[in-house]
Design brief:
about 300 residues; about 25% helix; 4-stranded mixed beta sheet; 8 helices; 19 strands; single chain; binds flavin-adenine dinucleotide; alpha+beta
Length: about 300
């Protein structure tokens, strides 16, 4: 049993379904769930209490890149909704890890700060994007991050400089860690200046492109990473799998690298589809697709 300090203890939820906290709108329940909305201090206190009491803890932002097992997640899941940002001189932005990417992109645009337009229609939070090196339209977190503040069990608050994050395509030194014994608190981003109207125009073009090429509704975005020199969606489509269905999940007829949950899909449906698509694509093209999404609650 987890004991939290008094202001937070009453907000601890038990046996709470994670479906409403993930973009695919599926998955089982967390034994314990805490939604942090107030402050970095609140987030740190809750996560530190779990570490101190050896309760397994997983921090999620928008749940936009995780497939939660139907059997749920043991221990504590913390949903990070702490949303703070400060705009400093010379294009420096200090932003809390729970800040939504889409909202941050718009705020940067309003402040005449360019370089973050790519994030205007990417779901999720700064924390998840820091870990995953999220990116789109030729930009990514690696191109923006100067440094990241972390809370680490035992080490307190530390600062990682961009070079220490070892960013590469949709991965980072943090994503490679299997201990999950760290919490991204905030990120320092470096942007350049431009006319707000020009920034808005680029963001509008990115949004329009996404509406044309990607399906609406519940999904996890791209299921697989693009293999070198090719696109996972193109390969899946070339194998005739667009529209293929397993249970409540379907390979999107709009974009074959998206699996949409349009009929009450389970995580088991998604996993079966991942395995099927990997097998068919490997048999027909020789390429083994690697998942971009992360499975949680499976160990
Ligand atoms: C419709 C759709 C479109 C998408 N398009 C794109 C796209 O264009 N480009 C792209 O890169 N991605 C895309 N994605 C995937 C997703 O948006 C990104 O991976 C995003 O960065 C996930 O952020 P999140 O906050 O939801 O992370 P989550 O899914 O909540 O978590 C991801 C990982 O980060 C960890 N984590 C999250 N926050 C913290 C924290 N504060 N401290 C420590 N660990 C943390 C989690 O434990 C987990 O391991 C898309 C997803 C959807 C649903």
């Amino acid at each position: 049993m987890l004991r939290l300090p008094p202001p937070y203890a009453s907000r601890l939820l038990r046996d709470e379904s994670l479906a409403r906290y993930t973009a695919a709108r599926l998955g089982g329940a967390a034994d314990l769930l805490y939604v942090a909305r107030e402050s970095e201090a609140e987030l740190s206190a809750v996560v530190s209490a779990a570490w101190a009491q050896e309760v397994p803890v997983r921090v999620l932002g928008g749940g936009a890149n995780v497939l939660v097992a139907d059997s749920g997640v043991r221990g504590l899941v913390v949903i990070n909704d702490v949303s703070q940002v400060s705009f400093q001189a010379d294009g420096i932005v200090e932003v809390s890890s729970g800040h939504a990417l889409t909202v941050l992109a718009r705020k940067c645009g309003t402040h005449g700060l360019s370089g973050f337009e790519w994030a205007v229609s990417v779901p999720g939070t700064v924390g998840g994007a820091v870990v995953n090196n999220a990116g789109a339209h030729g930009g990514d977190m690696a191109g923006n991050v100067v440094s990241v503040r972390l809370l680490e069990g035992g080490a307190g608050v530390t600062t990682l400089m961009q070079a220490e994050l070892a960013y590469a395509y949709r991965t980072s030194a943090l994503k490679q860690r299997t201990d999950h014994h760290y919490l991204v608190l905030s990120a320092r981003l470096a942007l350049t200046t431009d006319e707000p109207e020009a920034i808005q125009a680029r963001m509008a073009a990115f949004i329009a492109h996404r509406k044309r090429t990607q399906p609406p509704g519940a999904s996890l975005g791209s299921i697989f990473k693009n293999p070198p020199g090719d696109y996972a969606g193109r390969l899946i489509e070339s194998c005739g799998l667009k529209g293929f269905r397993m249970g409540g999940a379907q390979v999107s007829p709009v974009h074959a690298n998206f699996f949409v949950n349009d009929a009450g899909a389970t995580a088991a449906d998604y996993l079966a589809m991942v395995a099927h698509v990997q097998r068919v694509v490997r048999e027909q093209t020789g390429v083994m697709l690697e998942t971009e999404i992360e499975m949680i609650g499976y160990s």
